[in-house]
Amino acid sequence: MTAPNERRDDRRALWLLLGASALMLMLGLGGRELWGAETRWANIALQMLQSGDYFDPYLKGGAYYDKPLLSYWLITASTWLTGGLGHWSLRLSSVVAAWFSVWLVYLLGERLFRKGTGLIAGWMLATTFYFVFWARVATADILTVCGVLAAVWWYWRGPDDSRFSRYVVFCLLLALTSLFKGLIGFILPGLVLLPHLLEDGRWKRHLNLRLGAALLVAGAFYMTPFLLSHLYGAPNYGESGLGLVLRENVVRFFQPFDNIGPIWTYLVYLPVYTLPWAPCWIIALWVAVRHWRHIEPDTRRLIQGLGLLLLFFTASGSRRSYYVLPLVPFAQLLGAWWITRRMAAREAQGRFGGNRLKAGFAAATVLTLGVLGVLYPWTNSGGGVIRFGETVRQQASLQAPLKQWEMVMVEVDNKVPMYLQTGGAPFYYVQETQDFPRAGDTAALMAWLERTSGRHWDPQRTIIVAQYRPGDPLPLDYLGADHQVVTTTPTRGEQVFHVRQDQSVAYIPRT
């Protein structure tokens, strides 16, 4: 086969991988309910859009600078493409980051190992169940994975290149990654690359003024959102972004205050989070250790970097299962190294097992599409938050345009309703600790709102929303005397399995 034909086949194989990855990431993306931490990102992004204040993140009406601003900004920017805040705009940035992650793993595998390793590693990552699952969730975790891979890939494009421009791009990638979730964006790529830097004293080559200048540029870039928040944010905002960086990235590492898991957390969850391909990298590790002196140097560095990542996360007292996500691409790269090594040995013996590998990837793709793209969205459709929001908007718009309505979110039993976008004024949040009328009538509640907020509320243009547990009586049920009551309907999955999640109730004034 001629070289042009080989290149054409390589491009086709890559586009097939990227096309299948896009399909697995996007099929049914808008049909699934908000899940877990997505409610936080949705709530914060919604309040940014409603208030026009993009520098002060609020959750449930209170200051909440738990993460840097960039992941929220990506969500609000996505609303320009999707026409408003919804399930697609919430998850689009994570999906794009996951798609680029598959591509970057392909590039790393092709650069560091024998031909075909990147393609196999890309397929392994694209069909890793929990990678695709978290890629379809609106959080900052997959954004961090993509940033780490981008920095590592950029380094390996010219590991001995000491030009200022290369340093600037590398350091800016570190800063950008750190603006997603925290300072681990600087730490994780450094740990992966440390074995190569220490080898033969290579770090001395890069210890120069050009690197120092690039770090200053990246530091200024990293500080820009915090500076803008300080200059243009609300003067009475109750939290410091840099203070939260210190608390979340330093204090939590040495003195964890939440998310405390056992020390063996990642030894269990790394195999789980790399299914169905976990046996590949486990076998690869065993083979590499047995032939340590004879394997390729890049393979040894990959294992050492993966080990440093595992030690770093384990050393932190704050541990959760999905914190292991940045290790997943490098584990799959190790598994792909073993597969291509085994395939080369079989080819040397006149045997070829490529068809079985293709069949395995095809089966994993179909299974991922079926579970995450079809079954999971179907069980989460037909009711829940999506249908609840549509019903409230529809019923309210029968009386007046959405922009004329105001909405009050009432916290009951430490439960605040899921996000609901009406197109009207910013939500007003009533905390559980406040002395709002638990019983009485509409007039008493409206009088309390005016007294507490210091503003006028039109009883005919105010929607009251609260959340409650299945089986409990409706909170604020006295409003039903002169309000239309809209409650969350069960999703198809809840109907089938007879299990209900927390439900919301909206009280819409009757004409």
TrEMBL record:
It comes from the Bacteria. InterPro entries: LipidA_mod_glycosyltrf_83, RgtA/B/C-like. Keywords: Cell membrane, Glycosyltransferase, Membrane, Transferase, Transmembrane, Transmembrane helix. Pfam families: PMT_2. The keyword Acyltransferase does not apply. Its EC number is 2.4.-.-. It is found in: Cell membrane. GO terms for molecular function: glycosyltransferase activity. It is a multi-pass membrane protein. Residues 66-226 form the Glycosyltransferase RgtA/B/C/D-like domain. The chain crosses the membrane at residues 12-31, 88-108, 129-155, 167-195, 207-228, 263-289, 301-317, 323-339, 359-378. It is an enzyme of class 2 (transferase). PANTHER family: MANNOSYLTRANSFERASE YKCB-RELATED (PTHR33908), MEMBRANE PROTEIN (PTHR33908:SF11). This is Glycosyltransferase family 39 protein. It comes from Pseudomonas ekonensis. The lineage of its organism: Bacteria, Pseudomonadati, Pseudomonadota, Gammaproteobacteria, Pseudomonadales.
